[in-house]
Amino acid sequence: MKLAISAFAVLVLVICCVAFAAGADRSHSMKKEIFGAVQGSSVDLYTLTNAHGIEVRATNFGGIIVSLRLPDKNGRMDDVVLGFDKLDGYLDNKAYFGAIVGRYANRIAKACFTLDGVQYQLAANDPPNTLHGGNKGFNKAVWKAEPFENSNGVGLIFTYVSKDGEEGYPGNLNVKVKYTLSDQDELTFDYEATTDKATPVNLTQHTYFNLAGEGRGDILGHELTLNADRFTPVDKTLIPTGELRSVKNTPFDFSKPTKIGARINDKNEQLELGHGYDHNFVVRRTGNSLELAARVHEPQTGRVLEVYTTEPGVQFYSGNFLDGTITGKQGHVYKQHFGFALETQHFPDSPNHPDFPSTILRPGQGYRSQTMFKFLVEK
Ligand code: GLA
């Protein structure tokens, strides 16, 4: 009898150990497969899954986040980012779905800037301005990818060398962007860069969200909070005028949760110029280096996205240029406002605005920036 009891105890112990080990294995995982090829370079697709089943698929082509599956308040998983099923869709993706944007995210006026007395001419790919790095920005580069796994999550380290003169920018720029999906349901982006000549640098991530699920209508019912008292109004080519304007009593005041669509059609010069929201907001700083810049809540599914950043600005873009000409995943047609982006960044056109926080990186200095997306559910 005694023997039977102790044999039973040993069996229970063994089962517990096996279950624990399996649980540990399930905490997070990483899978790599071939996504396709770009100009002879093989491109991979990595699937990162965390302990709660949140799944990010990313490729080393442009560092693009191809899909992001999040639970809703009932535990239902949906892909909440716009994009394509196959690599082909991304090759000439004018919307920058999911990509790392650089060397200079956002616009530089008249595709031109002067640095240390030298004038540099860039591609006017958004006439008359340069936009998001020019004709072949970082979103179209094949990055080197190195997967990693630690006790807290899984991730990818993307590296890319942008050659001196690439897209008209000076200096060989070594760029490193680390994506980490943690078991605390955070997706963190750590950006680093060094250069051998002074150059402007402004890096961001251009994921478009629809927290109800991609392809499921517009995002006008999403409730947005922006931690910003001021924004940078623009001219008719979407270049900041230089003013930091108070959001008070304007449709740009998102200091309390407000539906994106509540005022988007108001008669307002800035909304007309942007065809909706396409503006840089000045993040209110309270002394934290990683500051909450934005929070978005989708009332039907309860999904919440929080955006934290070390950057001084965030471009809130309400998907204004989506016009039904892009067919994305599973044949979904992306119409106006079917997705929004929150692009953490330095202010647009900073190289031509000495009053804005500087974007100039010099030899011997290190560019560092961090942004974190935190995913939650509100019942
Ligand atoms: C940014 C810009 C927009 C637009 C999109 C991409 O958000 O500010 O004007 O160019 O990228 O379509």
Description:
By secondary structure, the chain is mainly β. It has one domain (30-377): Beta-galactosidase, Chain A, domain 5, CATH 2.70.98.10. It has three helices and 29 strands. A nine-stranded antiparallel β-sheet has the order 11-12-13-14-29-23-22-17-20, with no helix packed on it. It has a five-stranded antiparallel β-sheet with strand order 1-2-3-4-5. Strands 19-18-21-24-27 form a five-stranded antiparallel β-sheet, with no helix packed on it. It is globular and about 55 Å long. Residues 11-25 have low confidence and may be disordered. Residues 95-96, 106, 131, 238, 278, 315, 317, 321, 341, 343 line the site of alpha-D-galactopyranose.
State the end-to-end CA separation: 51 Å
Instruction: Please summarize the sheet with the most strands.
Output: 9 strands, antiparallel
Helix content: under 10%
User: Structural class, judged by helices and strands?
Assistant: mainly beta
Please tell me the CATH architecture by its name.
Distorted Sandwich
The number of distinct β-strands equals 29
Radius of gyration: 22 Å
What is the general shape? Answer: globular
Low-pLDDT parts are 11-25
The total number of structural domains is 1
Summed over residues and divided by their number, the pLDDT gives a mean of 94
Instruction: Write the CATH fold name.
Output: Beta-galactosidase, Chain A, domain 5
Tally the helices: 3
Strand order of the main beta sheet, please? 11-12-13-14-29-23-22-17-20
Beta content:
35-45%
CATH level-1 class? Mainly Beta
